[in-house]
Specification:
2 helices, 69% helix, elongated
Length: 74
């Protein structure tokens, strides 16, 4: 059985990662889930989830930095 081909996560936006993650979840919940590729999809979903978390954390840090800077000028 051929392994699924995936895009390079490092070049994907948050929205693209989230969309692919949602697609994997839908596929796993459906009758179309190929049991032979389940491990590859599970691994991919884990990496996508970690990437989304990292992007959210980085954005939160940046927003906190911006907001703390604006509070000093008031």
């Amino acid at each position: 059985m051929e392994e699924p081909k995936f895009n390079d996560i490092s070049k994907m936006s948050f929205s693209e990662c989230l969309s692919e993650l949602e697609g994997i979840v839908r596929m796993m919940e459906s009758d179309k889930c190929d049991i032979d590729q389940l491990a590859a999809y599970t691994t991919r979903a884990t990496v996508l989830l970690d990437t989304c978390r990292s992007k959210l954390t980085a954005t939160d840090r940046e927003l906190q930095k911006i907001l703390s800077g604006t509070g000093e000028n008031s």
